[in-house]
Amino acid sequence: MNAPFYRFAAFGDEASLVVAFVIGIGFGFFLERGGFGSARKLTSQFYLDDLAVFKVMFTAIVTAMLGVFYLSWLGIMDLSLVDLVTTNLWPQIVGGLVLGFGFVIGGYCPGTSLVAAVTGRIDGMVFILGVLAGIFVFGEAFPLLKGFYESGDFGRLTLPQAFHLPYGLVVFLVVVMAVGGFVGAEWVERRFAPPAAER
Amino acid sequence: MARPHWTPNRALAAAALLLGVVAIAGNPYRGSTVSIDTQELATIVGSTVDHVTVQELADWIIQGRTDYRLIDLRSEPEYAAYHIPTAESVPVALLPQYGLGRNEKIVLYSEGGIHSAQAWFLLRAQKYPGAYILFGGLETWKDEVLYPVVPATATPQETAAFERTAQVARFFDGGPRAAAAAADSGSLIALPAMPAAPGISIVPPGAPAAGGPARPGAKKKRKEGC
């Protein structure tokens, strides 16, 4: 059987919700086990003494990228059927900044705030209320924001298309970037680690 | 001289690098380029899994689903005169250059079924697995969704079941018609006038409540997050 399973109708709309539930539980479980339900752990990356978030994110990107690439190369998966979000450059830059500021100020990103909330952390619950309020305000203000929301539309753009590079070369460059990032991150952690007495 | 110490992290990083180096020679899209499998196509045709019925399509439109693209293969004047809500006009000759994604569910319709069947083969030959034919085309849409025939001798259960069909018909500005009227009107049925903005249907006051708010033509929005 070929992937993506949903596109090849291995399961329907209702079963896809069950699959999403199972994957979501797994995702939340590993976030929590990684310590990402704690705002202290998450924000320590901004003090440069614990870059676990950065390393986990890059590991996830590289693992998923290599998996998708090799499954497609072997013909087990059809990459042209995988959904892509359109690139809307300007609103995505602004959205990234809003998320980054929110992360630094609130101590969570949306997924980790849910993990924090269900493990009983009050700051996580308050963060979720803030997220919901923001969604509500955005939804109500959408007619005003619509023009900007749809600006800078590059369609479904991938890195190989954007840089006119062979697909495999981009995969290699991202891996090199990630490994370089890990080495750099560990160096930064040693450099900025607080003295043992403070920990 | 100390030998490099293989912690799990270093081993994984080395494995990733190795896979990255091998990847330079590869192309993920190679696996999906296969020659046309006529037996596979014949099997699909025989099993009719490539069909979407008019009732299914009507439900999708009422639910406001945005996970499909409805393609009207008729000429542009015919499209302007009437088209199914949410449809895009793409005459058959322009289909190969039209920007359809392989990852999209594409529902094709024409007046009857010939053009949509031909277009289906065009798309399948170009490896669009999500191509479907609206079974019976616009004629069946007219006969079964817009102007369904009231069964002449119906049991109470059948009448109750028909009420939903009638509600759907009214949603699309049509309505049920009696069996006798259907017999002599033949194909001379006036189609509902199109609203001013093409592709956006006006929700009639008697729209079925069960379908929820209808948003045909709503822009696709995807969710993502970390």
Instruction: Characterize the largest beta sheet of chain B: strand count, sense, and whether it forms a barrel.
Output: 5 strands, parallel
* Class based on secondary structure composition and strand pairing of chain B: alpha/beta
Series of secondary-structure elements of chain A, N-terminal to C-terminal: HHHEHHHEHH
> For this structure, what is the CATH class of the domain at 36-141 in chain B?
Alpha Beta
Q: Share of helix among residues of chain B?
A: 25-40%
The count of helical stretches of chain A stands at 8
Helix content of chain A: 55-70%
- Could you spell the SSE succession of chain B in H and E letters? HHEHEHEEHEHEHEH
Number of strands of chain B: 7
Unreliable sequence segments of chain B:
196-225
Compute the gyration radius of chain A: what is it? 20 Å
Low-confidence stretches of chain A: none
Q: Identify the most extensive interface between protein chains.
A: A-B, 39 and 27 residues
> What count of domains describes the coordinates of chain A?
1
CATH homologous group name of the domain at 36-141 in chain B: Rhodanese-like domain
Largest sheet of chain A: 2 strands, antiparallel
Going across the major beta sheet of chain A, what is the strand order? 1-2
Report the total helices of chain B. 8
Descriptive account of the structure:
- The complex is a heterodimer of chains A (199) and B (226).
- Chain A is an all-alpha fold.
- Chain A has one domain.
- Chain A has eight helices and two strands.
- The mean pLDDT of chain A is 88.
- With 226 residues, chain B is an alpha/beta fold.
- Chain B has a domain of 106 residues: Rhodanese-like domain (Oxidized Rhodanese, domain 1).
- In chain B, 38% of the residues lie in helices and 10% in strands.
- Chain B has a five-stranded parallel beta sheet with strand order 1-5-4-2-3. Chain B has a two-stranded parallel sheet with strand order 6-7.
- Chain B is elongated, with a radius of gyration of 24 Å.
- The two termini of chain B are 44 Å apart.
- At the A-B interface, helix 3, helix 5 and helix 8 of A face helix 1 of B.
